[in-house]
Amino acid sequence: MTSLAPRVVVVHRATERDRLLARHGSYAQAAFFLRERGRDPADIDRSHQAVERALAAISAAIPADWRRGRIERADLDRFLFAPGDIVVVAGQDGLVANVAKYLDGQPVIGVDPEPGRNPGVLVRHRAEALAPLLRAAAAERAPVQRRTMVRVRTDDGLELRALNEVFIGHPTHQTARYRLESADGEAERQASSGVLVSTGTGATGWCGSVWRQSRSTVRLPEPDEAALAWFVREAWASPSTGTDRTEGRLAGGAALRLVAESDGLVVFGDGIEADRLTLAWGQAAQVSVDGRRLELVA
């Protein structure tokens, strides 16, 4: 019985030029829109061409006898990744985070189509250098960094996971009311603009901003450390709500538990509000280190 050839799934995002054409119907109208707002259409064209060149180079690097797939970010929630897939993400660092929640152990190779424009924390490779990485990943010889993810599980069994962070709060970022139960078993009723729980990967983003602004002394986790940091945003002190428990760390099997005390609180990860869980009054959500990790080819 012949085993199947490896499958490479290329994940990308529609370029800004593609999105403008879809919105305005023609290149001339899109260019007029950009000029009216002080932007040069040539910049959009250069970025689009760089992405197209990278995608072409990625396609050329995949061995002819291997299977292949290609998917846009907007369709990720409808795509089924197979256990043996090799995932190539071509785009910004955030696209790797968008993909991570749909994977379970598949190796991910991040390709930067516009070197110098992206930080390159998660998209570390050039398209032209992809071929040997693909063969190493297929042979399970590629060096891999196992990055920690965060998981939220509601009391009715629904789950959401993320690579950077999860946010729990009101969908309009107005005051959220809930009871927070920290890992040490202590509880406090709070009113705030939401709770942020971050991995070490997310510690350089949204969580890092909150950490700096609050002058926190909590040690932020490393990307591969099985730990999380959590922060309450703008907690409000009142006769019925407190501000004593607004930050901390979760390590090992420790968990943070929130019980909603208002309807319509939401949980979303990595900034994707459309993909979210909703908490009704009295419903609980537990946040902890996820058992899955992102297998990022280093």
Write the layout of secondary structure elements.
Blueprint: E1 7-12, H1 16-24, H2 27-36, H3 41-61, E2 67-72, E3 86-90, H4 93-100, E4 107-111, H5 130-138, E5 144-154, E6 159-162, E7 165-169, E8 176-181, E9 187-192, E10 195-198, H6 206-213, E11 227-232, E12 247-251, E13 256-260, E14 265-269, E15 276-279, E16 284-297
Parallel strand pairs: 1-2, 1-3, 3-4, 4-16
Antiparallel strand pairs: 5-6, 5-16, 7-10, 7-14, 8-9, 8-13, 10-11, 11-12, 13-16, 14-15
Helix pairs in contact: 1-2
Our count of domains comes out at: 2
Determine Rg (CA atoms, Å): 21 Å
Largest sheet: 10 strands, mixed
State the CATH superfamily name of the largest domain.
Probable inorganic polyphosphate/atp-NAD kinase, domain 2
Overall geometry: globular
Structural class: alpha+beta
Rounded to the nearest angstrom, the distance between the terminal CA atoms is 34 Å
Low-confidence runs = none
The amount of beta strand, in percent, is: 25-35%
Number of strands: 16
* CATH class assignment of the largest domain: Mainly Beta
Counting copies of identical and different chains, the oligomeric state is single chain
User: What is the helix content?
Assistant: 10-25%
- From N to C, what is the helix and strand string? EHHHEEHEHEEEEEEHEEEEEE
- Please work out how many helical segments DSSP would assign: 6
Per CATH, the architecture of the largest domain is: Sandwich
- CATH topology term of the largest domain: Tumour Suppressor Smad4
Mean pLDDT: 93
